[in-house]
Fold each of these.
Amino acid sequence: MNTPPEPSLEPLEDARADPVAYQLVVPLMLIALLNGMHSPFTALLVKMAGGWYPPFLPPMLELVFYFAQILVATLTLILAGIPAALYEQAAGTGRTTYASMGIWLLGAALLSLPAIGVVKELL
């Protein structure tokens, strides 16, 4: 008879990601939020709100602007993650490494260059 293995009290090691790689998550999120707040594409999305803003929400400019910022920040994370995912597949590591997170951070920074120009004008 096959008996199941006894449960271990040791924590399972996460083989999917390098723990050091997660040090870049906070700067990545900050860059995406900066891009969402100051990107010229946010103003473009506010102007085109009739196409993406849900009709069941109240048509308040503050809500439209808030959701436009969140949408731009989310799109920044998604688009910047594509090169990082391609690198992970090409490298064959099958896990998130410090290099792939660095590529993700660099991609987000490049996508945020128009927002940095807007911030310079504000200062």
Amino acid sequence: MMLPRTLAELKQAVARAYNVVNQEMYEIGVKRLRVDVAGNKIIILAEHRRIPGLKALDKVNRSITRLTDVALLDENKKRLKEQLETDLEIKIKTVLKDYDPEHEVAATVALLYEPLDEG
């Protein structure tokens, strides 16, 4: 893969990596995705489609789906970190992620060891 040279290319590469991980894990793409870069942070806001089985279970036993969401988030963060490091050839300190199932919105922050060149 050719490394991104501009901020727009970097954002597109991050969006592709994010979608690859989502397709692998959920077989569902995202509805909307926005990527921003601020110094040593890559910030991703995404609107997702809730997994139908979890959406149905949310109504009767949210505590079970909450545990499932946390486990899925942990695996997603691990895979996204690996995907971004491979695709962008950068070192990531950590990936933080939260998901609101009611509004189907996820916020993800990849914290890098070094700031990205935004030029």
